[in-house]
Design brief:
The complex is a heterodimer. In chain A, 74% of the residues lie in helices and 3% in strands. A two-stranded antiparallel ribbon of chain A has the order 1-2. The longest helix of chain A is centred in the N-terminal third of the chain and has 31 residues. The N and C termini of chain A lie far apart (41 Å). Chain B is mainly α. In chain B, strands 1-2 form a two-stranded antiparallel ribbon. Chain B is globular and about 55 Å long. The chains are: A mainly alpha, B mainly alpha. Chains A and B meet through helix 3, helix 4, helix 8 and helix 10 of A and helix 5 and helix 13 of B.
């Protein structure tokens, strides 16, 4: 593997990690709820794409468009139906953190178990745009480039949405000062549900992208959720650009270790990085955290 | 130990342990014995988990990291060292690992610790797998030690008695008081001069030591182990949910959760092997939504005691 191959592979993987983590940082940064079942809602759309593409011959790009409202609706409902009772019960106090972790943990098992029942433990994939493209003397599959492009577009779009629109300002206000947001007429619970839904849309899009270029299995969700968490904490909770940078960093680190040391040690790299960040920069790599 | 009531409690505890110890002598049914071993194993794990997490309210998913290390200690050293030596090494490993991890991470709170502890279990599993694949070139080991089911039962019972006694004693020391303050409000604890990091690390080490030894004791039961058996994440999850069902703050809470849930999980995994994960998740959610403070608090409310 030459340097450019590593660069491209790392950028694709990192872009994907960044995108997955952006959704989680929205959910955690605004709604203050750590959604441990997040990864399952990445794998579920991947399976949906697999079924739609291989059974009905739909183009994955159409599924990508479909995934946005669907993912939004699912996570919005999860927040309204499952998590609102917990927010009410605990009065958003410290007990909420523990309770929501446990509730979403239970949800993780339910969704993962359902997928295992339907699809079994095997790896799935389908052929889409797996034609080689030559970029500056290096060869890369077209689907990987597409993933990178979509990740950049979606990430940029989200950034614009949050920084340039009224809705985005409301979301950021809740993220920065949840106790003072009601003073200016913001409905914190509705905004939290909105952020949860936006995170859901992002993770669904990421799931469709994953299905385009990686083989996936029903039990892979936890791994994605872990990596997303690591990226979120590295980037600083609620910091979107930090997320993207940390995602890329993780992607490069993994690719480097996998190609030059040992593919079996990528997870060790993940946790090594995570631990270093937690010990030395607990608020994230990029200055002060948003909260 | 001042009041007569406490003497009665200790006496009742000792009698219960003695009664349970005599049980396998006339019990001829292997299935019931193995079920009892599972109940005891999770009772020790849940009580040891609650030893640290009950008062501090840290949610640890690292149970299986220590459990697996213990199991591997037996697998590697079982034929080399006498049994007591194996357990001593496991104990030592557990304490050292807990001190390293604890010193590095117990400053983290809330969700960071949850994630980290889960990651620690996965990391340990990956490192052991990597070592076995690349260095010993063989995944999986046979455990040849001269330990019968009855021995396992007695050793687990001994561990359970120890960990319960330790919890009961800690509650009456300065350490126990410090722990309760940390659980209520860590900022206040720092302000009244409690060295919260030291307290947490000490407790974490004690809790982890018990879990590691439990792993070492349990290993002979399998005769064959590989990383996916010894480091099965479901052990952490089940320990957590059992402790929570009973109520981790109370001394006997984890026992109250472990006994029914071991039987329930045994029944579920035998009857619905393909749907076990879904059912486990539902049990989780039912407990979080319906029994948020544990069975002990429900019983207390019914009994009218504060």
């Amino acid at each position: 593997m030459n340097f450019l191959d590593v660069l491209l592979a790392g950028a694709t993987l990192g872009g994907l990690y960044g995108l997955v983590a952006m959704g989680l940082t929205l959910q955690y940064g605004v709604a203050r709820i750590m959604n441990l079942s997040y990864g399952e809602f990445l794998i579920a759309p991947a399976f949906l794409t697999y079924v739609l593409v291989s059974q009905f011959g739909l183009s994955p790009l159409w599924v990508l468009v479909l995934a946005i409202p669907l993912g939004f609706a699912v996570q919005w409902l999860v927040y309204q139906l499952l998590l609102t009772p917990l927010v009410r019960r605990t009065g958003a106090g410290p007990a909420l953190e523990v309770d929501s972790i446990l509730a979403t943990f239970g949800l993780l098992f339910v969704v993962q178990g359902a997928m295992l029942v339907v699809f079994g433990g095997n790896y799935y994939s389908y052929e889409y745009l797996s034609v080689p493209i030559h970029v500056l003397g290096s060869t890369v599959a077209a689907n990987r480039l597409l993933v990178l492009v979509v990740a950049v577009l979606v990430g940029g779009g989200l950034y614009a949405l949050l920084t340039r629109t009224r809705m985005g300002t409301v979301v950021r206000a809740v993220s920065v000062a949840p106790r003072f947001a009601p003073l200016v007429g913001i409905n914190v619970r509705q905004t939290s549900a909105l952020a949860f839904g936006m995170g859901g849309a992002l993770v669904a899009v990421s799931g469709v992208l994953v299905s385009m270029f990686l083989p996936f299995s029903a039990s892979m969700g936890t791994m994605f959720a872990m990596k997303a968490l690591i990226v979120v904490i590295m980037g600083g909770v609620g910091n979107l650009m930090g997320c993207l940078m940390a995602g890329l960093l993780l992607g490069f680190a993994e690719t480097l270790v996998a190609s030059f040391v040992d593919p079996g040690l990528t997870l060790a790299v993940n946790f090594g990085l995570f631990l270093l960040v937690l010990l030395f920069r607990p608020t994230g790599l990029f200055g002060k955290a948003a909260r | 130990m001042n009041s007569p009531r406490e003497w009665w409690a200790w006496g009742a505890g000792a009698t219960a342990v003695l009664g349970l110890a005599l049980l396998p002598l006339w019990l001829q049914n292997d299935y019931v014995l193995s079920l009892l071993i599972s109940v005891l194993m999770y009772s020790v794990l849940a009580t040891a988990w609650a030893l640290f997490s009950g008062p501090t309210r840290y949610i640890s998913l690292a149970t299986v990291a220590f459990f697996g290390v213990g199991a591997y200690t037996t697998a590697v050293l079982g034929e080399v060292l006498p049994w007591a030596g194996v357990l001593a090494v496991a104990l030592l490993l557990g304490v050292v690992m807990a001190l390293l991890v604890g010193l590095a991470t117990l400053r983290l709170s809330g969700v960071y610790f949850v994630i980290f502890s889960f990651g620690l279990a996965e990391l340990t599993k990956q490192l052991v797998t990597w070592y076995e694949v690349n260095i010993t070139k063989e995944i999986g080991r046979y455990v040849f030690v001269d330990i019968t089911q009855q021995h396992i039962y007695w050793q687990l019972l001994g561990l359970l008695a120890l960990v319960l006694a330790l919890r009961a004693l800690i509650q009456r020391t300065r350490l126990g008081l410090a722990l309760r303050v940390i659980g209520e409000d860590e900022t206040v604890a720092v302000h009244v001069g409690i060295n919260t990091t030291v307290v947490k690390v000490v407790l974490f080490a004690a809790s982890s030591a018990f879990i590691t030894v439990t792993g070492a004791v349990m290993a002979p039961r399998w005769t064959y182990i590989d990383p996916s058996i010894a480091f099965a994440p479901v052990i952490s999850f089940q320990t957590l949910i059992m402790a929570l069902l009973g109520g981790p703050a109370a001394l006997l809470g984890p026992l109250l959760g472990a006994a029914p849930l071991v039987l329930l999980f045994e029944f579920l995994s035998a009857s619905f092997p393909n749907h076990f994960s879904i059912l486990l998740g539902l049990v989780f959610m039912v407990i979080v939504y319906l029994v948020p403070n544990g069975l002990v608090s429900l019983l207390r409310r019914k009994g009218g005691r504060p």
